[in-house]
Each structure stands twice: as structure tokens, then as C-alpha cells.
Design a protein that fits this description.
Elements: E1 9-12, E2 15-18, H1 61-71, H2 83-90, H3 92-126, H4 128-136, H5 141-170, H6 186-212, H7 216-222
Length: 223
């Protein structure tokens, strides 16, 4: 209807109805659906009432039930619930997917940190003689630590260089599972990159610390 719709009549389901109020476009079934224009009609077979309140809605449920029954003693109030409860139910599957994805993501981060630690720890063990020689020739513990840390940084940098473009391509496969966000959001990739770098730093800490404490005499005897 063009202009002011209040008071106007329209036909629906072989009956004429009068417009008594206006509401914004709303989402009817799924939270991820686009808002669409609609109208609400009170029927004798059953109706849904929405009540807005400034107090906790649970505290009003007995009063609401009593008010309905007082107006119509034969009315059957089948269910009283809150909008938060309805919303939680409607997105339960999406929340489960998000939780599952978070668990897998955290597991992948943990495995990444363990993998980096294992590679660097093995590298330090294999290069003990080299570190001993470097120490004997005047290298300080800080020099050796920076050497191992540089190797860790190159390893992480190479992984990010290969992983970020691959993630951008793979993100297209989860577009249908996202709502309100882009799979290629720059801030999301920046945050993930920072988290991976932090995990790599944690995984590299012990090998780097061990490399800086190598005793030249012991390392040379081992070699």
C-alpha cells in the first residue's frame, strides 16, 4: 500500500482485514534469512503474542498467563517463552558448527606449536657440535639464540606465505556457513596470522633457550 496504510483494508484468504498498526520488516523463519515485508492476522485457531518489557520476561510469565485466561477463560496457553530462548533454538545448529570449528582450529594451532617445537628441538640436537664450535670461536649465547630464532622466523614466514593464500582459496568453501561476515575479512586473517606467530614463538622458546646454554666442551666431545 502506498502512503499511510493505517485504517485501510485488504483481502487475504477470502476475508477482508483492516490495518490497525505498522511494524518493520522482520525475519520469519531463520535468523540468517533476509528481512521481508509481512502482515499479522489474529485467528481463532491460535495466535502468537509478542510482549516487550523492560523487566526480566521470566518474571512476567505468570501475570501474562493470568491476563489471557481472565479475558478468555477457554483459552489454552500452550507455551510461554522468551525471544532469547527462541533465538538460541533457531541458531543451535550454527552454534554447534562454530564450536566444532573452534575445537578443530585450536587443535590445529596446538599441533602447529608442537610441530615447530619438535623441528627446532631436533635441529638444536643435531647442531650441538656446530654450536660448540661457534662458542669456542667467540660466539655468545645471544648470537646462538638469534641464529636459532632466525631459523624459526624463516620457517614460520614460509608457512604463512604458503598458508594464507591457500586459506583464502579454501575459505570460499565455507561461505554458506557464514552470516554477516566475509570469509576473506582482512582483520580475521591478521588475527589468525598473529595467533600463529605467537604459537610459533611459544613452540620455539625452549629450543632457542637450550641452544644458548650449550657448553662448548660437552658439545665438542659429543661430536
Amino acid at each position: 500500500m502506498d502512503g499511510d496504510a493505517l485504517g485501510k483494508r485488504f483481502a487475504w484468504n477470502e476475508k477482508w482485514h483492516t490495518v490497525v498498526g505498522l511494524v518493520p520488516d522482520a525475519k520469519q523463519r531463520e535468523y540468517t534469512d533476509a528481512a521481508a515485508p509481512m502482515f499479522y492476522v489474529i485467528t481463532r485457531s491460535g495466535s502468537n503474542f509478542l510482549i516487550r518489557t523492560s523487566v526480566p520476561p521470566e518474571s512476567l510469565m505468570p501475570a501474562v498467563r493470568g491476563a489471557i485466561v481472565s479475558k478468555d477463560p477457554g483459552a489454552v496457553v500452550s507455551r510461554l517463552t522468551t525471544m532469547n530462548a527462541l533465538l538460541a533454538t533457531s541458531i543451535a545448529e550454527e552454534r554447534y558448527r562454530a564450536l566444532l570449528s573452534s575445537v578443530f582450529g585450536c587443535s590445529a594451532l596446538l599441533l602447529s606449536a608442537i610441530g615447530i617445537y619438535g623441528i627446532l628441538a631436533r635441529n638444536v640436537t643435531d647442531r650441538l657440535r656446530e654450536f660448540g664450535v661457534r662458542s669456542a670461536l667467540g660466539a655468545t649465547p645471544r648470537n646462538i639464540r638469534m641464529l636459532v630464532l632466525g631459523q624459526s622466523a624463516r620457517l614460520v614466514g614460509l608457512g604463512l606465505l604458503l598458508g594464507v593464500p591457500a586459506a583464502l582459496v579454501a575459505s570460499r568453501a565455507i561461505t554458506a556457513m557464514l552470516y554477516g561476515v566475509s570469509p576473506a575479512a582482512p582483520h580475521a586473517f591478521a588475527m589468525v596470522t598473529a595467533v600463529l606467530a605467537a604459537c610459533a614463538a611459544v613452540g620455539a622458546f625452549a629450543p632457542v633457550h637450550r641452544a644458548g646454554r650449550v657448553d662448548p666442551a660437552i658439545a665438542l666431545r659429543r661430536g
